[in-house]
Amino acid sequence: MRAWIAAVLTLGLAAPAAADKLTFEERVELVRGLMAEFATVKQFLPRSKKALPFESTGTYDKKVWEERGQEHGPAARVGDLVQISKVELGDDKIELEINGGFKGGRKWYDRIQVGMGTSGRTYPVSTQNSNAPGGTSIVILFHKPLEAMKAADVKKILAPVLDFERRSATELYTETLPEPIQKAIKEKRAVEGMDREQVLLALGRPVRKTREVKDDMELEDWIYGQAPGKITFVTFNGSKVIRIKEAYAGLGAEAAAPLPPR
C-alpha cells in the first residue's frame, strides 16, 4: 500500500474518481510519455506566472499570450528547443511545465539528478541542452472529465505550438507559408511573390547579384547558374520577386518562364 501511494506522489497523480473516464494506468502512461520530452517551438512562447491557456481543440487566444509576453518576455521563440519538466493531470485539464516553469530557464535541469541502482551514484535527468531562454507553463483545457488518451494524443493537440518530431526551424517555417510557395520551395524553384528568405530556401545563394534603377523602381537581380547552360534571373522590386527569367547561355534560346503560383 505504501509503495502504491509513493508511486502516485512521485508521478504527481491522483487516484481516479468514480466518474473519471481516465484510468490510473492511463494516467501513468500520460505522465511517463510526456515527462522530459523535448519539443521544437512553432509559435512565440511567452513566460507567464499563470499557465498559458490552450484549448483541447488545438486553439488558443493569441492576444492573451502576446499580453503575457509583453509583461514577462519570451520563454522561447520559433525554432527553440524546450523540454517538459513537470506534468499535472487535473479532472478536466492537463498542465505542462516547460523548462522549469516561470522561475526556470536555460539549463534548469542541470541541478536535478536521480539515483540509479544501489551504487549510490547519481546522474543528471537530461544530457541534452534546451536552447530556450526561459520557462513557462501551458494548461490544456478540456472542459469535461478527462477521457482515455495517450501521450501521443496530447502531443497532437499541442501541434500548433510545439513540434515533438524534432524537425528543424527551417521546416517549421516552411509549413507556415502559402501552399504554392511551399510547393515551389520543395521543387527548388522561385516564383513571383517570394521574399529573399524564401528564394534562398528554394535556390540557395546566387552566383552573383546586380542592381539597377528602372522606371523609378530599384531592381535587384539574383543570378543562378553558369555558362554554358541554364541561367536563372530572379528579379526583386523591394523585398518581393516580380519576375523570373530562365535562359540558356550561348544557345540563343530562352526557357519558358515558370508558371505563377495558383
Write the SSE topology.
Elements: H1 2-11, H2 24-34, E1 38-41, E2 45-46, E3 52-55, H3 62-72, E4 74-76, E5 81-89, E6 93-98, E7 113-115, E8 122-124, E9 136-141, H4 151-157, E10 162-163, H5 169-175, H6 179-186, H7 196-203, E11 208-214, E12 217-224, E13 229-237, E14 240-249, E15 253-254
Parallel strand pairs: 3-9
Antiparallel strand pairs: 1-5, 1-10, 2-4, 5-6, 6-9, 7-8, 11-12, 12-13, 13-14, 14-15
Helix pairs in contact: 2-4, 6-7
How many β-strands, per DSSP?
15
Largest sheet: 6 strands, mixed
* Strand residues, percent: 25-35%
Radius of gyration: 25 Å
Indicate the overall shape. Answer: elongated
Helical run tally: 7
* Physical arrangement of strands within the biggest beta sheet: 3-9-6-5-1-10
Helix content: 10-25%
Arithmetic mean pLDDT? 80
Main structural class: alpha+beta
Summed up, the domain count is 2
Could you name the ranges where pLDDT drops below 50 across 5 or more consecutive residues?
Answer: 1-11, 106-129, 253-257
Distance between the termini: 65 Å
What is the H/E order?
HHEEEHEEEEEEHEHHHEEEEE
Quick gist of this model?
The chain is α+β, with helices and mostly antiparallel strands. Helix content is 24%, strand content 30%. Helix 2 (24-34) packs across helix 4 (151-157).
Commentary on this structure:
The chain is built from seven helices and 15 strands. It has 262 residues and is of the alpha+beta class. It folds into two domains: 2-166, no CATH class; 177-254, Beta-lactamase Inhibitory Protein, Chain:B, domain 1. The strands form four sheets. Strands 3-9-6-5-1-10 form a six-stranded mixed beta sheet. A five-stranded antiparallel beta sheet has the order 11-12-13-14-15, with no helix packed on it. Strands 2-4 form a two-stranded antiparallel ribbon. Strand 12 (217-224) and strand 13 form a beta hairpin. Helix 2 (24-34) crosses helix 4. The longest helix has 11 residues, at 24-34. It is elongated, with a radius of gyration of 25 Å. The model is unreliable at 1-11, 106-129 and 253-257 (pLDDT under 50).
